[in-house]
Design brief:
alpha/beta, Rossmann fold, 2 domains, seven-stranded mixed beta sheet, 12 helices, 11 strands
């Protein structure tokens, strides 16, 4: 184990995701176990620039795994987008004696980490985003909890839609990727799922499916729309009502999907990733992204990781199409 690391820092950046606290806890407790001091940087890169840091002890992180959000807060920093801001952040790491930095967040957070690595700060990234859209990892912290939150909400909506024989158009998060919408659509038996990766033909992809389901005897319908789909949820609802005459209502789940206690998968995955991040720093392995491949926790060079892309699960898409076409 490398001896030169005496103090590590942890920050969360970008959108919060259930399980971030579990990753923080794991990193802190692992560092303490190996006799390394851990400091928390509050408010992401904004706090790194301003020097908003505090020592983290076992008492600070006791019991936080069950809570959503992030105890370190998160913020987006325009200043960090500039070379001057990046230099200040790197200088603060050196001034505060932070010899390794663990950054929990999404793709944008990792690109920020890359700029610090270029300035000589050892960094390790942990993927935390409910969108599950980071190319280098098959799973990101928060995805399972966000899916379950959305599914519970849709199930509740379906109860009242069934009572009133309505169509429910539900917007879920997913500005650039449809992983969340696809999984929610499969889990809830949606009549239609619209995602950013598809070009929407309203008649074929929406109206005809609702008409077919209605002819088969269904009297209520669910349409899942990712926020990044090329037709907004409000537009979809208006066109459904006009084309089919079915009373249609829109529900936007919004930030509801980010909150709430993380489920077991997110707590355990976050803990494994937090442990791995500290392990990498203490063995002198720097500038890596901790990832999941299958059930294994692995790591990639940060430049290699950021070059990776991720598409939708093709089998899941085919299954979803079959289930929507064959529903009665």
């Amino acid at each position: 184990m490398a001896e030169k690391i005496k103090r590590i820092g942890v920050l969360t950046s970008g959108g919060d995701a259930p399980g971030m606290n579990a990753a923080i806890r794991a990193a802190v407790l692992t560092a303490i176990h190996f006799g390394v001091e851990c400091v928390g940087i509050r408010r992401g890169y904004t706090g790194l620039i301003s020097g908003d840091m505090l020592p983290l002890t076992a008492e600070h992180v006791a019991g936080i795994s069950k809570h959503g959000g992030t105890m370190l807060y998160t913020a987006r920093s325009e200043e960090f987008m500039t070379p001057e801001g990046q230099n200040r952040a790197a200088d603060n790491c050196r001034f505060m004696g932070v010899e390794g930095l663990i950054i929990i967040g999404g793709d944008g957070s990792f690109r920020g980490a890359q700029t610090l690595a270029d300035r000589g700060i050892p960094v390790i990234g942990i993927p935390g985003t409910i969108d599950n859209d980071i190319g280098c990892t098959s799973y990101t912290i928060g995805f399972d909890t966000a899916c379950n939150t959305a599914v519970e909400a849709v199930d509740r909506l379906n109860d009242t839609m069934q009572s009133h024989e309505r169509c429910s158009v539900v917007e879920v998060m997913g500005r650039c990727a449809g992983h969340l919408a696809l999984n929610v659509g499969i889990a809830t038996g949606a009549t239609v799922t619209l995602i950013p990766e598809m070009v929407i033909d309203f008649e074929t992809d929406v109206a005809d499916r609702i008409r077919s389901a209605r002819l088969s005897g269904k009297t209520n319908f669910t349409v899942i729309v990712a926020e990044g789909a090329d037709m907004p949820a409000e537009t979809v609802a208006a066109k459904i009502q006009e084309a089919t005459g079915v009373d249609t209502r829109v529900t936007t789940l919004g930030h509801l999907q980010r909150g709430g206690p993380p489920l077991v998968r997110d707590r355990v995955t976050a803990s494994r990733m937090g442990y791995k991040a500290v392990e990498l720093l203490l063995t002198g392995t720097y500038n890596r992204i901790v990832c999941m491949r299958g059930d294994q926790i692995v790591d990639y060079d940060i430049n290699e990781a950021l070059a990776m892309t991720k598409g939708l699960d093709v089998d899941a898409c085919l299954m979803q199409d079959a289930l929507m076409s064959g529903q009665d």
